[in-house]
Amino acid sequence: MRKPTRQHTAVCMLSATMFSLAGTAHADCRSALNTPNWSQIARSVSTLQLCEQIPVGPNQTARFDIVSLDTCSFPNNVVSVTAKAMLTCQSGQDSFVQMPSVDSEVTVAATLDMAACRIISSDLKVSGEIGAILSSLEDVQAAARNWAQSNLSRLCAMQR
C-alpha cells in the first residue's frame, strides 16, 4: 500500500478531531460547532495544508473551513460522526504555471465502536477537481481509514 500523502493525512486529522468529540456524545445528535472547544478545533484544522501535497494542480491551501461536525450516539457505545469542510486550493506565488483557484467539498462519515475503540465503517468523499485527483490515487479510502484508526487508538489510550 502506498504511504498516505499529507492531504490524506490532513483529512484524516479532521476525522481524528471528530473522534475525540465522539467520546462525549450524548444520547441525541449534536453539533460540535456549538461546543466550548470548537474555536480551538477550528484553529487547529485551519492550519492544515492539504493542497501542498496534491501531485498536480494548485498546490497551496487558501482555505479549509469546517462547515459542520455532528455526532450521534447509539446503544452499545456506537457513535456516528459526520463532517463537511470547504477546501480551496490555489497556485503558489512560485508556481511556474498559475492556475485559477479550485474549490472542493470534503465530506467524512464514520461509525465508531467507542467501547472497542475502533472504526466500524468510514467514507471519505472529496468533490470537484481535487476529488478527481484523489480518486486516481490507489487506496485512498483504506489509507484514510488506517490513519484515522491509528489516531483514534491513540486518543482512546489517552482517555484511559
Q: Strand share of the residues?
A: 25-35%
Mean pLDDT, nearest integer? 76
Number of strands: 5
Percent of residues in helices comes to: 25-40%
Indicate the structural class. Answer: alpha+beta
Strands ordered across the widest β-sheet: 1-2-3-4-5
Question: What does this 3D model show about the protein?
Answer:
The longest helix is centred in the last third of the chain and has 20 residues, at 140-159. The protein is built from 4 helices and 5 strands, in the order αβαββββαα. Helices cover 34% and strands 32% of the residues. The model is unreliable at 1-26 (pLDDT under 50). It has helices spanning 6-22, 38-46, 128-135, 140-159, and strands at residues 30-31, 60-74, 78-90, 102-113, 118-126. Strands 1-2-3-4-5 form a 5-stranded antiparallel sheet. Strand 2 and strand 3 form a beta hairpin. The protein is α+β, with helices and mostly antiparallel strands. The protein is globular.
Keywords:
five-stranded antiparallel beta sheet, globular, disordered N terminus, alpha+beta, single chain, 160 residues, 4 helices
Can you describe this structure in just a few lines?
The chain is built from four helices and five strands; from the N terminus they run αβαββββαα.
